[in-house]
Design goal:
Strands 3, 4, 5, 6, 7, 8, 9 and 10 form an eight-stranded antiparallel beta sheet that branches. The chain has a two-stranded antiparallel sheet with strand order 1-2. The chain has three helices and ten strands. By secondary structure, the chain is of the alpha+beta class. The protein has a single domain, classed as Protein Transport Mog1p, Chain A, CATH 3.40.1000.
Length: 175
């Protein structure tokens, strides 16, 4: 009985995901952006974000193995950008961090290809029977700290390639 309930819940969520996903009527590229500074949150970076965007604690906020992790999601409607940094001085180069992130991306279920590759980051495509999604990873080295940008978690919808490129360019232009 428990399995039947779980199956029905999964089927309902899958149907909701398909009916709500991937075809957003507004584009991230069309949002009016303003400067957002995360220095008061402990991350020495400022970037463009939609007017009225909220800064929420991300899933990886906290302390792990004695290292304090700062992780925030900047959210406004379909805009979800994750910005993270730990308090340890970075010993790896940007190239090593990006290489590790690329290896992780390639192990993701449905990984198809890298659609953009640069020295500080990349955009990649994921596709399954149920959805097609574009994701990215970008690294900014500042004050001997690696500030990492990724697409944030959106429930029941996916990022288009254009959306991923918009978020990637925001990360790329962060200062």
């Amino acid at each position: 009985m428990k399995k039947l309930g779980l199956f029905l819940l999964t089927a309902i969520l899958a149907g909701f995901s398909v009916s709500c996903g991937g075809d957003s009527s507004s584009s991230l590229a069309d949002m009016k952006l303003t400067e957002l500074n995360l220095a008061d949150k402990g991350i020495p970076v400022s970037l463009q974000a939609p007017e009225g965007a909220e800064i929420k604690d991300g899933m990886f906020m906290g302390e792990f193995g004695g290292i304090k992790m700062l992780d925030y999601e900047i959210v406004k409607d379909e805009f979800v950008l994750e910005v993270s940094m730990d308090d340890a001085e970075e010993t790896r180069t940007v190239e090593e961090i990006v290489s590790d992130a690329k290896e992780t991306a390639q192990t993701e279920d449905g990984f198809v290809e890298f659609v953009k590759e640069e020295s500080n980051g990349f955009i990649y495509k994921v596709k399954t029977d149920d959805y097609e999604d574009y994701k990215f990873h970008y690294v900014l080295m500042k004050d001997k700290k690696a500030i990492e940008f990724t697409e944030g978690l959106k429930l029941f919808t996916e990022f288009t390639q254009k959306d991923a490129e918009t978020l990637y360019n925001i990360a790329k232009n962060a200062k």
